[in-house]
Backbone:
Protein backbone atom coordinates (compact mmCIF):
# COMPACT_ATOMS: atom_id res chain seq x y z
CA UNK A 1 0.00 0.00 0.00
CA UNK A 2 1.53 3.31 -1.03
CA UNK A 3 1.00 6.76 0.50
CA UNK A 4 -1.50 7.83 -2.18
CA UNK A 5 -3.69 4.73 -1.55
CA UNK A 6 -3.58 5.30 2.20
CA UNK A 7 -4.49 8.98 1.76
CA UNK A 8 -7.37 8.12 -0.57
CA UNK A 9 -8.72 5.47 1.80
CA UNK A 10 -8.55 7.75 4.84
CA UNK A 11 -10.04 10.64 2.85
CA UNK A 12 -12.98 8.51 1.63
CA UNK A 13 -13.89 6.88 4.94
CA UNK A 14 -13.18 10.12 6.83
CA UNK A 15 -15.42 12.12 4.50
CA UNK A 16 -18.27 9.57 4.68
CA UNK A 17 -18.07 9.54 8.49
CA UNK A 18 -17.79 13.34 8.78
CA UNK A 19 -20.72 13.94 6.41
CA UNK A 20 -23.04 11.59 8.30
CA UNK A 21 -21.88 13.00 11.64
CA UNK A 22 -22.67 16.59 10.59
CA UNK A 23 -26.07 15.93 8.92
CA UNK A 24 -28.15 16.23 12.16
CA UNK A 25 -26.11 19.25 13.31
CA UNK A 26 -26.81 21.07 10.03
CA UNK A 27 -30.57 20.33 10.07
CA UNK A 28 -32.98 22.88 11.47
CA UNK A 29 -33.64 22.29 15.21
CA UNK A 30 -37.36 21.71 14.57
CA UNK A 31 -36.57 18.91 12.11
CA UNK A 32 -34.33 16.43 14.01
CA UNK A 33 -33.63 13.40 11.80
CA UNK A 34 -36.26 14.58 9.31
CA UNK A 35 -39.09 14.55 11.85
CA UNK A 36 -41.10 17.74 12.43
CA UNK A 37 -41.29 18.70 16.13
CA UNK A 38 -42.78 21.79 17.80
CA UNK A 39 -40.31 24.53 18.80
CA UNK A 40 -40.98 23.82 22.49
CA UNK A 41 -39.82 20.22 22.09
CA UNK A 42 -36.44 20.73 20.41
CA UNK A 43 -34.63 20.17 23.73
CA UNK A 44 -36.65 17.06 24.61
CA UNK A 45 -34.50 14.32 26.25
CA UNK A 46 -35.73 11.79 23.66
CA UNK A 47 -34.17 13.88 20.85
CA UNK A 48 -30.91 14.37 22.80
CA UNK A 49 -30.76 10.60 23.43
CA UNK A 50 -31.32 9.84 19.72
CA UNK A 51 -28.60 12.35 18.74
CA UNK A 52 -26.06 10.86 21.16
CA UNK A 53 -26.73 7.30 20.05
CA UNK A 54 -26.54 8.30 16.39
CA UNK A 55 -23.18 10.13 16.81
CA UNK A 56 -21.64 7.21 18.68
CA UNK A 57 -22.78 4.73 15.99
CA UNK A 58 -21.42 6.87 13.14
CA UNK A 59 -18.01 7.45 14.74
CA UNK A 60 -17.61 3.81 15.88
CA UNK A 61 -18.54 2.48 12.43
CA UNK A 62 -16.16 4.97 10.76
CA UNK A 63 -13.23 3.78 12.89
CA UNK A 64 -14.12 0.09 12.54
CA UNK A 65 -14.63 0.16 8.76
CA UNK A 66 -11.38 2.12 8.20
CA UNK A 67 -9.46 -0.39 10.31
CA UNK A 68 -10.98 -3.33 8.41
CA UNK A 69 -10.32 -1.67 5.04
CA UNK A 70 -6.50 -1.74 5.47
CA UNK A 71 -6.14 -5.56 5.15
CA UNK A 72 -8.84 -5.48 2.46
CA UNK A 73 -6.63 -3.19 0.32
CA UNK A 74 -3.84 -5.78 0.45
CA UNK A 75 -6.24 -8.67 -0.26
CA UNK A 76 -8.58 -7.25 -2.91
CA UNK A 77 -6.80 -4.16 -4.20
CA UNK A 78 -7.23 -0.47 -3.56
CA UNK A 79 -10.24 0.24 -5.79
CA UNK A 80 -12.44 -2.58 -4.43
CA UNK A 81 -11.51 -1.91 -0.78
CA UNK A 82 -12.11 1.83 -1.09
CA UNK A 83 -15.49 1.41 -2.81
CA UNK A 84 -16.61 -1.29 -0.38
CA UNK A 85 -15.56 0.73 2.70
CA UNK A 86 -17.33 3.88 1.48
CA UNK A 87 -20.53 2.01 0.53
CA UNK A 88 -20.64 0.25 3.91
CA UNK A 89 -20.23 3.58 5.71
CA UNK A 90 -22.97 5.19 3.62
CA UNK A 91 -25.32 2.27 4.37
CA UNK A 92 -24.50 2.16 8.11
CA UNK A 93 -24.87 5.96 8.40
CA UNK A 94 -28.25 5.86 6.66
CA UNK A 95 -29.45 2.99 8.86
CA UNK A 96 -28.37 4.87 12.02
CA UNK A 97 -30.05 8.04 10.75
CA UNK A 98 -33.33 6.22 10.03
CA UNK A 99 -33.22 4.50 13.42
CA UNK A 100 -32.74 7.88 15.16
CA UNK A 101 -35.66 9.29 13.15
CA UNK A 102 -37.84 6.35 14.23
CA UNK A 103 -36.92 6.98 17.89
CA UNK A 104 -37.88 10.68 17.63
CA UNK A 105 -41.11 9.84 15.81
CA UNK A 106 -41.99 7.31 18.48
CA UNK A 107 -41.39 9.86 21.28
CA UNK A 108 -43.47 12.42 19.34
CA UNK A 109 -46.34 9.96 18.96
CA UNK A 110 -46.18 8.71 22.55
CA UNK A 111 -46.06 12.25 23.96
CA UNK A 112 -48.69 13.59 21.51
CA UNK A 113 -46.45 16.61 20.86
CA UNK A 114 -48.90 18.23 18.44
CA UNK A 115 -51.99 17.42 20.54
CA UNK A 116 -54.35 20.38 20.94
CA UNK A 117 -52.12 22.68 18.86
CA UNK A 118 -53.59 24.82 16.11
CA UNK A 119 -51.60 23.89 13.01
CA UNK A 120 -51.22 26.34 10.16
CA UNK A 121 -49.21 27.22 7.10
CA UNK A 122 -48.20 30.74 6.10
CA UNK A 123 -47.23 32.26 2.75
CA UNK A 124 -45.62 35.68 2.52
CA UNK A 125 -46.87 37.22 -0.73
CA UNK A 126 -44.05 39.78 -0.72
CA UNK A 127 -41.71 37.04 -1.94
CA UNK A 128 -43.77 36.99 -5.15
CA UNK A 129 -44.71 40.67 -5.49
CA UNK A 130 -41.25 41.89 -4.40
CA UNK A 131 -39.01 38.84 -4.96
CA UNK A 132 -35.38 38.59 -3.94
CA UNK A 133 -33.38 39.21 -7.12
CA UNK A 134 -30.25 37.26 -7.89
CA UNK A 135 -27.28 39.66 -7.51
CA UNK A 136 -25.80 38.79 -10.89
CA UNK A 137 -22.63 40.74 -10.02
CA UNK A 138 -21.82 37.87 -7.62
CA UNK A 139 -21.04 35.80 -10.73
CA UNK A 140 -18.71 38.47 -12.14
CA UNK A 141 -15.52 36.98 -10.55
CA UNK A 142 -16.34 33.53 -12.01
CA UNK A 143 -16.95 35.04 -15.45
CA UNK A 144 -13.79 37.19 -15.19
CA UNK A 145 -11.65 34.13 -14.31
CA UNK A 146 -13.12 32.24 -17.30
CA UNK A 147 -12.39 35.24 -19.56
CA UNK A 148 -8.82 35.46 -18.21
CA UNK A 149 -8.31 31.76 -18.98
CA UNK A 150 -9.42 32.34 -22.59
CA UNK A 151 -7.03 35.32 -22.90
CA UNK A 152 -4.09 33.25 -21.57
CA UNK A 153 -5.01 30.37 -23.91
CA UNK A 154 -4.85 32.66 -26.93
CA UNK A 155 -1.80 34.65 -25.75
CA UNK A 156 0.49 31.67 -25.11
CA UNK A 157 1.39 29.18 -27.89
CA UNK A 158 0.11 25.73 -26.89
CA UNK A 159 2.46 22.71 -27.07
CA UNK A 160 1.88 20.16 -29.84
CA UNK A 161 0.98 17.47 -27.33
CA UNK A 162 -0.59 17.87 -23.89
CA UNK A 163 0.19 16.00 -20.62
CA UNK A 164 -2.25 13.36 -19.29
CA UNK A 165 -2.58 15.22 -15.94
CA UNK A 166 -2.18 12.01 -13.91
CA UNK A 167 -0.26 11.50 -10.67
CA UNK A 168 0.28 13.85 -7.74
CA UNK A 169 2.20 16.34 -9.87
CA UNK A 170 -0.42 16.27 -12.68
CA UNK A 171 2.14 15.26 -15.30
CA UNK A 172 1.72 11.48 -15.69
CA UNK A 173 -0.28 9.47 -18.18
CA UNK A 174 -0.27 9.30 -21.94
CA UNK A 175 0.26 12.60 -23.79
CA UNK A 176 -2.51 13.58 -26.22
CA UNK A 177 -2.44 15.64 -29.40
CA UNK A 178 -3.48 19.28 -28.98
CA UNK A 179 -6.99 19.91 -30.30
CA UNK A 180 -10.06 21.93 -29.30
CA UNK A 181 -11.59 19.35 -26.93
CA UNK A 182 -8.25 18.26 -25.45
CA UNK A 183 -6.81 21.77 -24.95
CA UNK A 184 -9.90 23.87 -24.23
CA UNK A 185 -11.98 21.55 -22.04
CA UNK A 186 -11.10 23.52 -18.82
CA UNK A 187 -12.56 26.64 -20.47
CA UNK A 188 -15.67 24.74 -21.61
CA UNK A 189 -16.04 23.49 -18.02
CA UNK A 190 -15.66 27.06 -16.68
CA UNK A 191 -18.47 28.22 -18.98
CA UNK A 192 -20.65 25.29 -17.87
CA UNK A 193 -19.95 25.99 -14.16
CA UNK A 194 -20.87 29.67 -14.56
CA UNK A 195 -24.03 28.90 -16.53
CA UNK A 196 -25.22 26.10 -14.21
CA UNK A 197 -24.60 28.31 -11.14
CA UNK A 198 -26.63 31.13 -12.73
CA UNK A 199 -29.52 28.72 -13.48
CA UNK A 200 -29.37 27.22 -9.97
CA UNK A 201 -29.47 30.64 -8.31
CA UNK A 202 -32.36 31.75 -10.54
CA UNK A 203 -34.20 28.61 -9.40
CA UNK A 204 -33.25 28.88 -5.72
CA UNK A 205 -34.81 32.34 -5.27
CA UNK A 206 -38.12 30.94 -6.61
CA UNK A 207 -38.33 27.92 -4.31
CA UNK A 208 -41.03 28.05 -1.61
CA UNK A 209 -39.81 30.20 1.28
CA UNK A 210 -39.53 28.41 4.61
CA UNK A 211 -41.95 30.53 6.66
CA UNK A 212 -42.83 29.37 10.18
CA UNK A 213 -46.53 29.96 10.94
CA UNK A 214 -45.58 30.58 14.60
CA UNK A 215 -43.12 33.39 13.72
CA UNK A 216 -43.94 34.50 10.17
CA UNK A 217 -42.41 38.01 10.27
CA UNK A 218 -39.09 36.88 11.77
CA UNK A 219 -38.69 33.84 9.52
CA UNK A 220 -39.59 35.84 6.39
CA UNK A 221 -36.92 38.47 7.20
CA UNK A 222 -34.32 35.81 7.87
CA UNK A 223 -35.26 33.94 4.71
CA UNK A 224 -34.53 37.04 2.61
CA UNK A 225 -31.08 37.35 4.21
CA UNK A 226 -30.57 33.62 3.65
CA UNK A 227 -31.41 33.87 -0.07
CA UNK A 228 -28.96 36.73 -0.56
CA UNK A 229 -26.28 34.75 1.31
CA UNK A 230 -26.96 31.66 -0.84
CA UNK A 231 -26.48 33.77 -3.99
CA UNK A 232 -23.18 35.20 -2.70
CA UNK A 233 -22.03 31.71 -1.69
CA UNK A 234 -22.99 30.40 -5.14
CA UNK A 235 -20.94 33.14 -6.80
CA UNK A 236 -17.98 32.36 -4.54
CA UNK A 237 -18.17 28.63 -5.25
CA UNK A 238 -18.33 29.24 -9.03
CA UNK A 239 -15.31 31.59 -8.80
CA UNK A 240 -13.30 29.02 -6.80
CA UNK A 241 -14.15 26.16 -9.17
CA UNK A 242 -13.21 28.34 -12.15
CA UNK A 243 -9.95 29.26 -10.40
CA UNK A 244 -9.14 25.56 -10.00
CA UNK A 245 -9.99 25.03 -13.68
CA UNK A 246 -7.67 27.94 -14.55
CA UNK A 247 -4.92 26.12 -12.64
CA UNK A 248 -5.73 22.88 -14.50
CA UNK A 249 -5.55 24.79 -17.81
CA UNK A 250 -2.18 26.32 -16.90
CA UNK A 251 -0.85 22.84 -16.07
CA UNK A 252 -2.44 21.31 -19.20
CA UNK A 253 -0.89 24.01 -21.39
CA UNK A 254 2.41 23.47 -19.54
CA UNK A 255 2.61 27.08 -18.38
CA UNK A 256 2.63 26.03 -14.71
CA UNK A 257 5.45 23.63 -13.69
CA UNK A 258 4.61 20.04 -12.76
CA UNK A 259 5.07 19.61 -9.02
CA UNK A 260 3.04 18.64 -5.93
CA UNK A 261 3.15 22.32 -4.90
CA UNK A 262 1.45 23.31 -8.16
CA UNK A 263 -1.16 20.58 -7.60
CA UNK A 264 -1.78 21.88 -4.07
CA UNK A 265 -2.18 25.45 -5.38
CA UNK A 266 -4.52 24.29 -8.16
CA UNK A 267 -6.84 22.55 -5.71
CA UNK A 268 -6.53 25.09 -2.85
CA UNK A 269 -9.68 26.99 -3.99
CA UNK A 270 -11.71 23.81 -3.36
CA UNK A 271 -10.61 23.96 0.29
CA UNK A 272 -11.77 27.59 0.34
CA UNK A 273 -15.20 26.36 -0.89
CA UNK A 274 -15.41 23.88 2.00
CA UNK A 275 -14.48 26.59 4.52
CA UNK A 276 -16.99 29.08 3.05
CA UNK A 277 -19.72 26.43 3.07
CA UNK A 278 -19.08 25.48 6.69
CA UNK A 279 -19.02 29.18 7.66
CA UNK A 280 -22.35 29.69 5.83
CA UNK A 281 -23.98 26.75 7.62
CA UNK A 282 -22.72 27.96 11.00
CA UNK A 283 -23.61 31.64 10.53
CA UNK A 284 -26.74 31.51 8.36
CA UNK A 285 -28.10 27.95 8.20
CA UNK A 286 -31.00 26.64 6.12
CA UNK A 287 -33.66 29.33 5.77
CA UNK A 288 -31.47 31.60 7.93
CA UNK A 289 -32.38 29.77 11.16
CA UNK A 290 -28.97 30.57 12.69
CA UNK A 291 -29.19 34.32 12.02
CA UNK A 292 -29.62 36.48 15.13
CA UNK A 293 -33.14 37.72 15.83
CA UNK A 294 -33.88 41.38 15.07
CA UNK A 295 -35.20 43.54 17.96
CA UNK A 296 -38.70 42.38 18.93
CA UNK A 297 -38.55 39.20 16.83
CA UNK A 298 -37.81 36.94 19.79
CA UNK A 299 -41.25 37.72 21.27
CA UNK A 300 -43.17 36.97 18.05
CA UNK A 301 -45.69 34.18 18.56
CA UNK A 302 -48.92 33.82 16.61
CA UNK A 303 -50.07 30.97 18.82
CA UNK A 304 -50.04 28.67 15.79
CA UNK A 305 -47.78 25.72 15.05
CA UNK A 306 -46.25 25.04 11.67
CA UNK A 307 -48.19 22.20 10.05
CA UNK A 308 -46.87 18.72 10.75
CA UNK A 309 -46.39 17.27 7.25
CA UNK A 310 -44.33 14.22 8.21
CA UNK A 311 -46.56 11.97 6.13
CA UNK A 312 -45.16 13.50 2.93
CA UNK A 313 -41.51 12.99 3.91
CA UNK A 314 -39.76 9.65 3.52
CA UNK A 315 -36.31 8.15 4.10
CA UNK A 316 -35.46 10.39 7.05
CA UNK A 317 -36.43 13.65 5.34
CA UNK A 318 -34.47 13.08 2.13
CA UNK A 319 -37.44 12.22 -0.10
CA UNK A 320 -40.59 14.35 -0.50
CA UNK A 321 -43.78 13.11 -2.14
CA UNK A 322 -46.92 15.27 -1.98
CA UNK A 323 -49.37 15.04 -4.87
CA UNK A 324 -51.34 18.10 -3.69
CA UNK A 325 -48.25 20.30 -3.63
CA UNK A 326 -47.56 21.93 -7.02
CA UNK A 327 -43.97 22.82 -5.98
CA UNK A 328 -41.33 20.90 -7.95
CA UNK A 329 -38.33 21.87 -5.77
CA UNK A 330 -38.51 22.21 -1.99
CA UNK A 331 -35.97 22.59 0.81
CA UNK A 332 -34.78 19.21 1.99
CA UNK A 333 -35.44 18.43 5.63
CA UNK A 334 -32.23 16.53 6.30
CA UNK A 335 -28.90 18.35 6.42
CA UNK A 336 -28.09 21.94 5.56
CA UNK A 337 -29.07 24.16 2.64
CA UNK A 338 -30.14 21.49 0.17
CA UNK A 339 -33.11 21.10 -2.07
CA UNK A 340 -35.00 18.06 -3.22
CA UNK A 341 -37.60 17.20 -5.85
CA UNK A 342 -41.27 16.76 -4.98
CA UNK A 343 -41.82 13.31 -6.47
CA UNK A 344 -45.57 13.91 -6.26
CA UNK A 345 -45.63 16.76 -8.79
CA UNK A 346 -45.70 15.97 -12.54
CA UNK A 347 -42.38 17.78 -13.14
CA UNK A 348 -40.81 16.10 -10.11
CA UNK A 349 -41.97 12.65 -11.23
CA UNK A 350 -40.39 13.22 -14.66
CA UNK A 351 -37.13 14.45 -13.07
CA UNK A 352 -37.20 11.47 -10.68
CA UNK A 353 -37.64 9.06 -13.58
CA UNK A 354 -34.75 10.65 -15.50
CA UNK A 355 -32.47 10.47 -12.41
CA UNK A 356 -33.52 6.85 -11.76
CA UNK A 357 -32.88 5.94 -15.43
CA UNK A 358 -29.42 7.55 -15.35
CA UNK A 359 -28.56 5.79 -12.05
CA UNK A 360 -29.72 2.39 -13.34
CA UNK A 361 -27.87 2.87 -16.65
CA UNK A 362 -24.65 3.95 -14.89
CA UNK A 363 -24.85 1.06 -12.40
CA UNK A 364 -25.57 -1.47 -15.17
CA UNK A 365 -22.70 -0.14 -17.29
CA UNK A 366 -20.28 -0.29 -14.35
CA UNK A 367 -21.45 -3.85 -13.55
CA UNK A 368 -21.05 -4.97 -17.17
CA UNK A 369 -17.58 -3.38 -17.21
CA UNK A 370 -16.62 -5.22 -14.01
CA UNK A 371 -17.88 -8.52 -15.48
CA UNK A 372 -15.86 -7.96 -18.63
CA UNK A 373 -18.88 -7.76 -20.94
CA UNK A 374 -18.09 -4.11 -21.75
CA UNK A 375 -14.65 -2.58 -22.04
CA UNK A 376 -14.83 1.00 -20.74
CA UNK A 377 -11.78 3.29 -20.79
CA UNK A 378 -9.96 3.22 -17.45
CA UNK A 379 -10.29 6.22 -15.16
CA UNK A 380 -7.28 8.43 -14.53
CA UNK A 381 -6.01 7.93 -11.00
CA UNK A 382 -3.44 9.58 -8.79
CA UNK B 1 -49.22 40.59 2.95
CA UNK B 2 -49.06 37.25 4.73
CA UNK B 3 -51.64 34.54 4.18
CA UNK B 4 -52.12 31.99 6.96
CA UNK B 5 -54.25 28.89 6.53
CA UNK B 6 -55.63 27.03 9.52
CA UNK B 7 -55.36 23.48 8.24
CA UNK B 8 -57.71 22.05 10.90
CA UNK B 9 -60.41 24.69 10.44
CA UNK B 10 -63.93 23.82 9.31
CA UNK B 11 -63.75 26.79 6.93
CA UNK B 12 -62.67 25.51 3.49
CA UNK B 13 -59.17 26.52 2.37
CA UNK B 14 -60.45 28.49 -0.65
CA UNK B 15 -62.76 30.46 1.64
CA UNK B 16 -59.88 31.24 4.01
CA UNK B 17 -57.81 32.56 1.09
CA UNK B 18 -60.75 34.64 -0.17
CA UNK B 19 -61.48 36.07 3.30
CA UNK B 20 -57.86 37.04 3.95
CA UNK B 21 -57.44 38.74 0.57
CA UNK B 22 -60.64 40.77 1.22
CA UNK B 23 -59.43 41.68 4.73
CA UNK B 24 -56.02 42.71 3.31
CA UNK B 25 -57.69 44.97 0.74
CA UNK B 26 -59.85 46.53 3.47
CA UNK B 27 -56.82 47.08 5.72
CA UNK B 28 -54.84 48.69 2.90
CA UNK B 29 -52.26 45.91 2.77
CA UNK B 30 -53.33 45.24 -0.82
CA UNK B 31 -54.16 48.31 -2.90
CA UNK B 32 -55.80 48.56 -6.31
CA UNK B 33 -53.62 47.26 -9.17
CA UNK B 34 -51.43 45.19 -6.81
CA UNK B 35 -50.61 41.90 -8.56
CA UNK B 36 -51.35 38.65 -6.76
CA UNK B 37 -49.19 35.55 -7.22
CA UNK B 38 -50.26 33.09 -9.91
CA UNK B 39 -52.50 30.25 -8.74
CA UNK B 40 -49.65 27.78 -9.26
CA UNK B 41 -47.19 29.96 -7.34
CA UNK B 42 -49.52 30.55 -4.39
CA UNK B 43 -50.45 26.85 -4.39
CA UNK B 44 -46.73 25.99 -4.23
CA UNK B 45 -46.08 28.53 -1.45
CA UNK B 46 -48.91 27.08 0.66
CA UNK B 47 -48.30 23.47 -0.44
CA UNK B 48 -51.92 23.14 -1.55
CA UNK B 49 -53.51 22.10 -4.83
CA UNK B 50 -53.54 25.03 -7.26
CA UNK B 51 -57.19 24.25 -8.13
CA UNK B 52 -58.03 25.39 -4.58
CA UNK B 53 -56.32 28.74 -5.21
CA UNK B 54 -58.11 28.91 -8.55
CA UNK B 55 -61.41 28.49 -6.76
CA UNK B 56 -60.56 31.32 -4.34
CA UNK B 57 -59.47 33.64 -7.16
CA UNK B 58 -62.61 32.81 -9.13
CA UNK B 59 -64.75 33.72 -6.14
CA UNK B 60 -62.84 36.99 -5.63
CA UNK B 61 -63.23 37.79 -9.32
CA UNK B 62 -66.99 37.15 -9.27
CA UNK B 63 -67.30 39.36 -6.19
CA UNK B 64 -65.43 42.17 -7.96
CA UNK B 65 -62.34 42.28 -5.73
CA UNK B 66 -59.84 41.15 -8.34
CA UNK B 67 -59.63 40.83 -12.09
CA UNK B 68 -57.86 38.02 -13.84
CA UNK B 69 -56.48 38.07 -17.33
CA UNK B 70 -54.05 35.85 -19.18
CA UNK B 71 -51.35 38.49 -19.58
CA UNK B 72 -51.09 40.18 -16.19
CA UNK B 73 -52.53 37.37 -14.04
CA UNK B 74 -54.61 38.22 -10.96
CA UNK B 75 -54.65 41.89 -9.96
CA UNK B 76 -56.54 43.66 -7.16
CA UNK B 77 -59.37 45.47 -8.95
CA UNK B 78 -60.38 48.03 -6.36
CA UNK B 79 -59.76 49.22 -2.83
CA UNK B 80 -61.35 51.69 -0.41
CA UNK B 81 -59.93 54.63 -2.41
CA UNK B 82 -61.47 53.47 -5.69
CA UNK B 83 -64.72 55.36 -5.08
CA UNK B 84 -68.28 54.21 -4.40
CA UNK B 85 -69.14 50.52 -4.73
CA UNK B 86 -70.48 49.00 -7.93
CA UNK B 87 -74.27 49.09 -8.33
CA UNK B 88 -75.99 46.38 -6.33
CA UNK B 89 -72.98 45.61 -4.12
CA UNK B 90 -74.28 47.55 -1.09
CA UNK B 91 -77.69 45.85 -1.28
CA UNK B 92 -76.20 42.39 -1.60
CA UNK B 93 -73.86 43.11 1.31
CA UNK B 94 -76.80 44.35 3.43
CA UNK B 95 -78.57 41.05 2.80
CA UNK B 96 -75.63 39.17 4.26
CA UNK B 97 -75.34 41.70 7.09
CA UNK B 98 -78.95 41.03 7.94
CA UNK B 99 -78.12 37.44 8.87
CA UNK B 100 -75.10 38.51 10.93
CA UNK B 101 -77.19 41.08 12.81
CA UNK B 102 -79.98 38.56 13.26
CA UNK B 103 -77.48 36.21 14.91
CA UNK B 104 -76.35 39.03 17.22
CA UNK B 105 -79.91 39.93 18.20
CA UNK B 106 -80.90 36.28 18.65
CA UNK B 107 -77.92 35.83 20.95
CA UNK B 108 -79.03 38.81 23.01
CA UNK B 109 -76.48 41.45 22.02
CA UNK B 110 -77.84 44.96 22.60
CA UNK B 111 -77.96 47.57 19.82
CA UNK B 112 -75.23 49.59 21.61
CA UNK B 113 -72.99 46.54 21.81
CA UNK B 114 -73.53 45.75 18.13
CA UNK B 115 -72.69 49.37 17.22
CA UNK B 116 -69.65 49.43 19.45
CA UNK B 117 -68.26 46.13 18.08
CA UNK B 118 -68.96 47.14 14.48
CA UNK B 119 -67.09 50.43 15.01
CA UNK B 120 -64.15 48.58 16.52
CA UNK B 121 -63.93 46.22 13.53
CA UNK B 122 -64.25 49.12 11.06
CA UNK B 123 -61.48 51.00 12.89
CA UNK B 124 -59.19 47.99 12.55
CA UNK B 125 -59.37 48.43 8.76
CA UNK B 126 -58.19 52.04 8.93
CA UNK B 127 -54.54 52.10 7.86
CA UNK B 128 -52.26 53.37 10.62
CA UNK B 129 -50.26 56.57 9.96
CA UNK B 130 -47.19 55.80 7.87
CA UNK B 131 -48.17 52.13 7.48
CA UNK B 132 -46.86 50.70 4.25
CA UNK B 133 -48.88 48.14 2.31
Residues:
Amino acid sequence: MNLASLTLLLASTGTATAVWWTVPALSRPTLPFGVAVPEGRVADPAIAHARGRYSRTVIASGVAVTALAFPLVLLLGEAVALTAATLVLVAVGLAAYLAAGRAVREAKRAGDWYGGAKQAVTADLSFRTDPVRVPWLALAPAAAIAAATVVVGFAVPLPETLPGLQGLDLDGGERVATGFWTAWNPVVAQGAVTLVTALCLAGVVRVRPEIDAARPAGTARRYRVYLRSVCLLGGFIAACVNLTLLGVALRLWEIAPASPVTTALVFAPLVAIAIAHIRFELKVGTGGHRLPAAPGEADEDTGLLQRDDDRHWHLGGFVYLNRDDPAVFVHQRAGGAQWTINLGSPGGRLAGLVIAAITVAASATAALDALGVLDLPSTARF
Amino acid sequence: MRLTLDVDSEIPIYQQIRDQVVAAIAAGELSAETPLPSTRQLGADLAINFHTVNKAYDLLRREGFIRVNRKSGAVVRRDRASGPPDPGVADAWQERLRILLAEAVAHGLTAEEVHERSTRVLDSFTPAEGKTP
Observations:
- The mean pLDDT of chain A is 91.
- DSSP finds ten helices and eight strands in chain A.
